[in-house]
């Protein structure tokens, strides 16, 4: 056989082998899709570099998460993309030391940020069983689009005539910079890493996840001291996964 004709035949044979393997892999993949609902225990890593002598502490807020998740399982590995409405935020308490009576700055300020995101998390899981059931560990990342939020303030002032309180509430708007001086903004996009553990039994999937934002979510306005914060969330979620398309019988999958 002429040498120039061997390469096309070898390439064709290689392509047929690869196509057969790919078809076999697709045939063994188990795809499922379903609703997901969970609870977010959300907080933030807060950094302050202002000139006013405040001492800050952060506390978590409990919020909701809901959406849809897919599970594409091949042997002991699963690819898990999701589309979620995720509520995040935190409580920030600042105490001024020393407290100056009559100062225009509050002696104690409590600020609650509630942020609502449309998030796209993608995880890769290693499962105990090749069917995708049993215990699993997973990791991945997420991208979030801020839909809006709310900022609630509870300030305490110390004067010679007594202690006074001031409460206010403003919306948080998505944006890369503060357009209006008296408005409050947060970055439109958030992104980070996440990891966790889970357990699947039949269609039921329970997961616990820790996610850490890598982008500064704050946008400074003229009313704020220099600061930054990064979203931190512990999530406990339940999903009910329904099969999509033709599934491989479990007895054909090696454990």
From TrEMBL:
Protein's organism: Hymenobacter nivis
Pfam families in UniProt: OMP_b-brl_2 (PF13568)
Record domain Outer membrane protein beta-barrel: where: 27-217
Superkingdom of origin: Bacteria
Lineage of source species: Bacteria, Pseudomonadati, Bacteroidota, Cytophagia, Cytophagales
Name used for this protein in its record: Outer membrane protein beta-barrel domain-containing protein
């Amino acid at each position: 056989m002429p040498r120039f004709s061997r390469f096309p035949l070898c390439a064709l044979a290689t392509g047929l082998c690869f196509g057969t393997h790919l078809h076999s892999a697709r045939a063994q993949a188990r795809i499922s899709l379903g609703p997901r609902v969970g609870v977010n225990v959300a907080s933030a890593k807060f950094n302050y570099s202002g000139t006013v002598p405040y001492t800050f502490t952060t506390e978590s807020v409990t919020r909701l998460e809901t959406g849809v998740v897919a599970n594409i399982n091949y042997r002991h590995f699963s690819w898990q993309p999701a589309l979620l409405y995720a509520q995040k935020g935190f409580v920030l308490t600042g105490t001024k030391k020393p407290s100056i009576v009559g100062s225009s700055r509050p002696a104690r300020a409590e600020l609650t940020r509630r942020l609502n995101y449309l998030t796209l998390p993608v995880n890769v899981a290693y499962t105990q069983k090749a069917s995708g059931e049993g215990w699993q560990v997973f990791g991945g990342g997420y991208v979030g689009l801020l839909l809006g939020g709310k900022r609630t303030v509870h300030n305490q002032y110390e004067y010679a005539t007594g202690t006074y309180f001031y409460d206010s509430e403003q919306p948080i708007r998505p944006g890369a910079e503060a357009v209006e001086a008296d408005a409050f903004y947060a970055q439109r996009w958030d992104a980070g890493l996440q990891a966790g553990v889970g357990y699947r039994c039949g269609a039921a999937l329970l997961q616990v996840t820790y996610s850490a934002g890598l982008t500064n979510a704050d946008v400074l306005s003229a009313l704020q001291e220099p600061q930054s914060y990064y979203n931190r969330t512990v999530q406990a979620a339940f999903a009910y996964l329904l099969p999509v398309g033709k599934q491989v019988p479990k007895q054909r999958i090696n454990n």
